[in-house]
Design brief:
Elements (H helix, E strand, L loop, with lengths): L2 H35 L4 H50 L4 E5 L6 E4 L1 H7 L3 H4 L14 H9 L7 E6 L5 E13 L2 E10 L1 H23 L3 E6 L4 E5 L2 H6 L3 H4 L3 H5 L7 H14 L1 E9 L5 E12 L5 E10 L1 H15 L9 H13 L9 E7 L2 H8 L1 H18 L5 E4 L4 E6 L6 H12 L2 E4 L2 E4 L2 E7 L6 H17 L3 E4 L3 H21 L3 E10 L5 E12 L3 E4 L4 H7 L1 H24 L5 E5 L2 H4 L4 H11 L7 E6 H5 L4 H12 L2 E7 L6 H4 L6 E4 L1 H4 L6 H16 L3 E4 L5 H10 L3 E2 L10 H9 L10
Parallel strand pairs: 16-17, 19-21, 21-22, 22-23, 23-24, 24-25, 25-26
Antiparallel strand pairs: 1-2, 1-5, 3-4, 4-5, 6-7, 6-10, 8-9, 9-10, 11-13, 11-16, 12-13, 14-15, 18-19, 18-26, 19-20
Helix pairs in contact: 1-2, 13-14, 14-15, 17-19, 18-19, 19-21, 21-23
């Protein structure tokens, strides 16, 4: 570039030099020759002058043209080298470069890097315009600058298409240049996609970090040790420290004034530790503006700067104040009953053990009284659990009000309370009277009035007793008191023998169930309208290898308490269904309905209906072949899943009977919602029928109410003809008792069925 201009300048220089020399020669040569040779020499002088001029000017012209040629050749070589250098720099540049017409934007030339980066051959790129290299959307401002022909030496970001059509971020710089004699624009692009993604990832990470720090429930902070100031705090810091954020960006000395005076030395130790050790975990109390302390757990780490020393401290502070409050609340809940506010069993045991350990005179003993409320379940059943809670609260208040200073009362169970009297305070009799006088009164809850009584068990401490021993002994005494229908009972060592006996019975009973020693016996149930056998009640007997046939009354309570009753019930149910199937096969429609007792524990399982249904199916029985009996006390209690099971059985066609009616303090009106078909009147009313007008009227009322609700009645415990006579007169449907037949094996029922279905008492 610039070759023609330099050649013209050289040509002008030669021409001007030649004209100057020629002019000087013409003007001065004649005078010079005349001075030397005179006029006579003018002819030869002119010839010589001409030859000299021609020779001189020719030589001069040769010298000048030679120099001009050499200069032009050198210039040409230099231009060639520059063109080669330009081509090398352009074609082999590591950055993509292209040349385009600033007016048409047509691409004029591209380098090799351009073809590789854009994944297109040179010929294809030369058919494009600059604006075809990337999407126009979002690049309108840059495209406008390109189209206006502006020089943009400053880098501009531009989205270009990559080799596979993907978008790539490029940084473009453009300059106006002379390209082969024409004005063009040289553009250079640098791919910064990876850098852009890294920057975007960093910004995204910073946003996430800011979001995390903002949403943290912990206080996050950063301290610049070079300036000695707090450089960062998240939003939680303002809430935790109770100060405006502006006030918190303070120096370390100022922040130290927020620390509790007793912890300021620890604060300085903490700062030194994080510098020396690089890490610290400690607890400090920070004062809020009103002086309220907040306990913070500080966890911080030192950040080493370019100097090689810790220049920054980053960390979090967890507010432990609520944790401490919660711990105190949990400790209170662990030690106190939430309903009554009395200490619970755990706190009672701790306190009693501590009192017993303190020692006392040998002549004096400590006393523990344990009591529960008689028939408390009826309160919940009749008025709801809120009424029961009100009664318990009232009892707790009454007991607390009469305690002598030094005594301790606690709620140790559902409706169980315990009172401890240290040695030498009161004797056992006085403590019992104190409690009875306080509790045995009416409690009013809304429209209900409940007369509260209790059963009390009292145990006196021995030298080796602890709180658990005393509670156990008092509970044994209380159980004995309840067996006597309430009152006060004092512990006797014989009670422990009873417990040992129950443990022994339970162990033997488990073996008996496993080895098949449980048998079923059957007691007749007779219709008082036809005098014929209509049903049998299945009763359990234990065929003990030593004691012989043991009645259920001696082991059924142990089975209930241990949970063996469910397994035992399975055995009796299966044997009863097998016998019912045998009678159905032999006697057809004359076969008696077999009634099986279901315990409260069995009713607590949701599978009761399923178990009965499987037993029927296993022996090929119709649902009407058997019935199930449930005691009134079980009905009065909250049956839970058992009620749904009884409803399912009734819907399948299995009859349901209410056993021992009159012992559970319910009414037929209450029971009418249950799926009952038979009510069995308890023997305690039947025994005095015809003797006691009250019992006679009760039986009469039960029979009448049952008939009104389409239920049949059966009298239990019939032992005399007079009782049978009165039951007939009152309209009772069925009867059961020793008069009609004792419990026995299935062969006794066979004898009745084989002789016409009437028990012996009716055979004349």
């Amino acid at each position: 570039m610039g070759g023609p201009d330099r050649a013209s300048a050289a040509a002008r220089s030669v021409a001007l030099t030649y004209v100057a020399i020629a002019g000087v020669w013409i003007l001065s040569s004649d005078a010079a020759f005349d001075a030397i040779g005179g006029p006579a020499a003018s002819v030869w002088a002119n010839i010589a002058k001409g030859l000299f001029f021609v020779g001189f000017t020719g030589g001069l012209l040769y010298v000048m043209v030679s120099r001009l040629y050499r200069r032009e050749q050198h210039l040409s070589e230099e231009l060639s080298r520059q063109a080669e250098l330009r081509a090398t720099l352009f074609d082999h540049s590591p950055e993509a470069m292209w040349v385009y017409d600033p007016e048409t934007l047509q691409i004029l030339e591209v380098n090799q890097t351009m073809t590789r980066r854009y994944g297109r051959p040179r010929t294809e790129l030369l058919d494009l315009h600059t604006t075809d290299l990337g999407p126009l959307q979002g690049n309108e401002r840059l495209v406008h600058r390109i189209g206006s022909g502006d020089r943009h030496a400053e880098p501009n970001l531009w989205l270009h298409y990559g080799p596979h059509g993907e978008h790539r971020w490029v940084e473009v710089v453009a300059h106006l240049v002379d390209w082969d004699g024409r004005l063009a624009t040289l553009a250079l692009s640098r791919d910064i996609t990876a850098q852009k993604r890294a920057e975007d990832a960093l910004r995204s990470s910073e946003r996430r970090l800011a979001g995390v720090l903002t949403s943290m429930q912990e206080m996050a902070f950063s301290i610049d040790l070079i300036t000695g100031r707090i450089s960062y705090l998240n939003k939680v810091a303002s809430e935790v420290l109770g100060r405006d954020p502006v006030d918190l960006f303070a120096s370390l000395d100022e922040f130290g004034s927020f620390v509790h005076p007793d912890d300021r030395e620890e604060f300085l130790v903490t700062m030194r530790a994080v510098v020396n050790d690089g890490w610290v975990d400690t607890e400090l109390r920070i004062l809020q503006p009103d002086g309220t302390p907040r306990l913070l757990q500080i966890r911080a780490r030192g950040v080493v700067g370019p100097s090689g020393r810790v220049e920054q401290v980053d960390g979090v502070a967890v507010d432990l104040t609520h944790r401490e409050e919660l711990a105190e609340l949990l400790e209170h809940q662990r030690s106190f009953d939430q309903l009554t506010g009395l200490p619970n069993r755990l706190a009672f045991v701790r306190a009693v053990d501590a009192a017993l350990a303190s020692g006392s005179p040998a002549t004096e003993v400590a006393v523990v009284a344990l009591f529960d409320l008689d028939r408390f379940a009826t309160v919940n059943q009749s008025a709801g659990h809120h009424a029961g809670d009100a009664v318990l609260t009232a009892v707790a208040e009454r007991v607390t009000a009469v305690l002598v200073p030094g005594m301790l009362a606690a709620r140790v169970g559902g409706d169980e309370f315990a009172v401890f009297s240290p040695a030498g305070l009161v004797v056992a009799d006085d403590l019992a009277r104190l409690l009875q006088d306080a509790v045995d009164e009416t409690v009013t809850v809304g429209d209900y009035e409940f007369f509260v009584t209790m059963s009390v068990g009292i145990a006196e401490a021995t030298t080796s007793a602890d709180a658990e021993d005393l509670l156990r002994d008092a509970h044994l005494a209380m159980t004995a008191a309840k067996a006597r229908t309430g009152g006060v009972e004092y512990f006797h060592p014989a009670y422990r023998s009873l417990i040992d006996e129950q443990v022994r019975i339970e162990s033997e009973l488990r073996r008996a169930v496993a080895e098949g020693e449980i048998r079923a016996v059957y007691q007749p149930e007779v219709s008082l309208h036809t005098d014929r056998l209509v049903g049998v009640e299945v009763l359990a007997r234990w065929n003990h290898p030593v004691r012989g046939l043991v009645p259920a009354v001696e082991f059924i309570e142990v089975a209930e308490r241990s949970g063996l009753i469910v397994e035992l019930g399975e055995v009796i149910l299966d044997e009863a269904c097998a016998q019912a199937a045998e009678w159905a096969r032999r006697y057809g429609d004359d076969a008696p309905r077999v009634w099986v007792n279901l315990s409260r524990r069995e009713l607590d399982t949701v599978e009761v209906a399923n178990r009965v249904g499987k037993a029927l199916a296993r022996h090929g029985l119709s649902p009407g072949a058997i019935g199930v009996e449930v005691t009134e006390t079980a009905f009065v209690a909250d049956l839970g899943p058992g009620l749904a099971g009884l409803v399912d059985l009734a819907e399948q066609g299995v009859e349901v009977a209410l056993d021992d009616f009159g012992t559970g303090w319910s009414s037929l009106q209450t029971l009418k919602a249950f799926p009952l078909s038979l009510v069995k009147i308890d023997r305690s009313f039947v025994t005095n029928i015809g003797v006691s007008d009250e019992d006679t009227q009760i039986v009469k009322a039960v029979i009448g109410m049952a008939a009104g609700m389409s239920m049949q009645t059966l009298a239990e415990g019939v032992e005399t003809a007079e009782q049978l006579h009165h039951l007939r007169r009152l309209g009772c449907d069925q009867a059961q008792g020793y008069l009609l037949g004792r419990p026995g094996g299935p062969e006794r029922i066979d004898e009745i069925l084989d002789t016409g279905g009437k028990p012996t008492v009716f055979v004349s």
